Amino acid sequence: MENPDRIYRRRSSWRLALAAYALVAGTALLASCGGDDGNSSDIGLKMQVLSSTSPDWVSGGDALVRVAGTLPAGSTVHVTLNGTDVSNVFTPVDGQPTGLVTGMVDGKNTLAAEVTRSGETAPFATQSLDVTNYPRSGPLFSGPRETPFLCETQNFTMPDGSKLGAPIDTDCSVTTRVDYVYRTTLTTGPQFLPLTDLTTLPADVATTTTNENKTVPYVVRIETGTANRAIYQTAVLHDPTHETAPTFANRPAGWNGRLVYSFGGGCTGGWYRQGNSTGGVLEDNILKQGYAMASSSLNVFGNNCQDLTAAESMSVVKERFIETYGAPLYTIGWGCSGGSYQQHQISDNYPGLLDGILPGCSFPEVAFATVYSITDQRLLGHYFRDIVPGQFTDDQQREVAGIQTLATMYTGTVYDGAMRIAPNVFCPAVLPVGQRYDPVNNRAGARCDVYDHVANVLGRDPATGFALRPIDNVGVQYGLAALNAGQISIDQFLALNQAIGGYDVDANFQAARTVGDAPAMRQAYQTGRLTNGGGGLKDIPIIDYRGYADDDPNGNIHLRYHSFSMRERLIKANGDADNQVMLHEDGRYGLYSSSSPLLMRALSEMDKWIAAIHADSAAGTAHAKVVRNKPATLQEGCMSRDPTNPVFIAEAMKIDSGQCATLYPAPPSPRASAGGPVAADVIKCQLKPVTTADYTVTFTPAQQTLLAQIYPDGVCDWSKPGVEQQGLRGTWLTF
C-alpha cells in the first residue's frame, strides 16, 4: 500500500492563510451527507450549496459551493468533485472558502472536503455532500415536459431594440449574452439607452445614490439567457468602464446585496409556449436604489399559467444569478395578478426561494379562487342575459353575483376569461392550428386550459387522456344571500338554481351541474395547487398591496375580496395572519406601479422587515420571528380617496367594517354569496338535506317540493370542510 504521506504531499491542495474564525451566529447550514470522520463537528465543518435552496436541486452542471467551519489557522482545505480535485476554484469570501464548481454530471455527484492542519499530513476533519444535478433546460421537479412547446427567442426584444435571435437547439436555448444600458439625464425619449462603448461613459449618463448611500453611475448590466426552457434576464448596477467583470467574489459596487424577483400577470394563452417577455427587470424606482432584478418568460402567467413550472423556472434563474453575483442577502417577490399567484404559491410550496413577498391585485391562486369567481359569474351572466333576459334587474344581478359593479360580470377578463377552463378557446397564436385540440377533428391535439396545463399533478382520465378537473358546483345555492336579504324572490331563486347548470369537459354550458373529479381535488389540496398558507408562507413577511378596482365602471377581475381570502387561509392554517399586512389605495397609479409612493414605501418596509428577521438570533419559531420583527413603522391601512392630498389611514383591515372598508368595499364572490367561506378554499362542498328552516323566507308547499327536486342529494353544508379537503403533503414535492 502506498505511503499516505506521499499521497498527501503530491496532491494539488489549496492552502488558506486564514486566522481562526467562528461561524456567524444564525447562519443556516444545509445538512451534509456522509463522510464525517467524527472530527468534523469539532470545527463545525459543513459543505454548502449556495446557489440552490438544497443540494438536491442543482442545474446546469455547476454550483456555487462554500466550505464552512471554524478552520484552524494556516490549515489546508482540499476539495474534490466525484474524486477529481477542484480546490483551485475556491477563494475566501467573507472568510469562507467559496468556489464555482463545474463539471457535474446529471444525477448524483459527491463533493468532499478535507481540512489538514499546518504541519500535518492526515486530514483533521472531513465532510462530504451529495449533490443532484439536472440539465439547465430542466425539468427538475415539475415532471414530464409539456408538449408541444414553441420557442420564441426570435421574438424577444433586447434593450437596443434588436431580437434575441433563433434558438440553437430543441430546448429553445440561446447563447448567454450581456448588454448594458444607462439611465439618461435627457428628459425626452426613453429612460434607458443602450451603452455601446464600454470604455467611456456618455455625457448624459445619470448618477444614482443607493439605499446604502453609495453614489454610482446609473449603468445597468443586463444578462439574457435561457434556463428551464425559459428566457431569463437579470439586471444590476455595474459600471464596466471602471469596474472589473462581476463574480461571486467581486460584486458590483452599486449592488445593495438584495434581489427583487418580478413576476408577470395574465393567464389566458399561457401554455405550450416559451413566451417573449419577462416580468420586467428595468424598474427605475427599484434599480436606482441598488436592488438587482431578475425574471423569466415562464414567470409571466400570460406565457405560463401554472405555478409549478414558474417555481422551477425561478429556482433555476436564481441559481444562475447567484453563480454570477453571489448569494443575495434576501430575495423579494414583486408582481400583480398572475404575479401574485406565483408569489403565494412559490413561497408556500417551495420555501426558500423568496424571503418576503409584495403581491399586488392579489388572488390566492388561479385554479380555484379566481376560476370559481369567474366561471360562476359566466354561468350567472349566461342565465341573466341569454336564458331569462329582463327578468332580473341590474341590482338583482349584481347582488346575486356578489360584485360591486355589474359590468364586472360581463367584462372580457371575467365572462370571456372564464374560458381559461376551455381546451380550445385561448390557444396561443404561436401554436399551429393543426396541433390544437378539436372535439371533432383532433381530439388528441393540445388542450389549451388551466387543467391540462398541470396534468402532471392533477392526473389524467384514462378513457380520454384529458386532465382530471377539480371544479364542481353541485349543491351550490346561487343567490342565497340575496334571497335571505329579500333582494330576489323565492321564485327567482328557484328558477335560477333549476336552470343555472354547469360546464361539460370542454367547458360548454350544460343543463347539469359540474361534477369534479375527486382524485384531482385531493391532489390540489395535498400539493398546494390550492394555496394552503401553512407551508412556507407562514414563515415570511407578506405585504398585500392593492390599487382598488372593484368600482371600475368598465368592470374588473381584480376584486379586493381576494386579499381577505388569502388572509382567512393563513388564519385557518396557522392560527393567525400576523405576518400579512394589507396596504390599499385607489387606482390613481393603476393596479401595481412603482410610481405609487405607497407601494415603494412597502418595498422599503419589506427590506427593513427581512433585515430584522435575519438579525434575530433569539429562540422561537420562524413564524414568531417574522411577527416580532415587523417594523413599528409598517402599519396596516389604506390611503384616503382625496383627489389632491390623500392621507394614510392606519387601521386593521376588516372586510366589512372600518374606514377602509367604507372607502374600499369588498363585496363577496358568487360562491360566497351562496354561503361559501371567505377563504374560498372549498372545491366541492359536502351536502346536507334540504330544510326550509335554513332560510329567512317562507316557502309554499309547492316551492318546497321544487326546492327538493332541484337539490335531490342536498345542498352545500358550508359548516364542514370540503370533499377531500386536507393539508399539504409537504413542500418541495416532485411530480
Description:
Strand 17, helix 3 and strand 18 form a beta-alpha-beta unit. It contains 19 helices and 28 strands. With 735 residues, it is α+β, with helices and mostly antiparallel strands. Helices cover 24% and strands 18% of the residues. The strands form 6 sheets. Strands 12-11-15-16-18-17-19-20-23-24-25-26 form a 12-stranded mixed sheet, sandwiched between helices. Strands 1, 3, 5, 6, 9 and 10 form a 6-stranded mixed sheet that branches. Helix 12 packs parallel to helix 19 (701-710). The radius of gyration is 28 Å and the shape is globular.
What's the gist of this structure?
This protein has 735 residues and is an alpha+beta fold.
Task: Output the keywords.
single chain; 735 residues; alpha+beta; twelve-stranded mixed beta sheet; 19 helices
- The number of strands is 28
Number of helices: 19
Find the structural class using helix and strand composition: alpha+beta
- What Rg is obtained from the alpha carbons, in whole angstroms? 28 Å
Largest sheet: 12 strands, mixed
Largest beta sheet: strand ordering: 12-11-15-16-18-17-19-20-23-24-25-26
Share of helix among residues? 10-25%
Query: Low-confidence spans: pLDDT under 50, at least 5 residues?
Result: 1-38
Give the rounded overall mean pLDDT.
Answer: 94
What is the beta-strand fraction? 15-25%
- Kindly report how far apart the N and C termini lie: 48 Å
Overall geometric form: globular
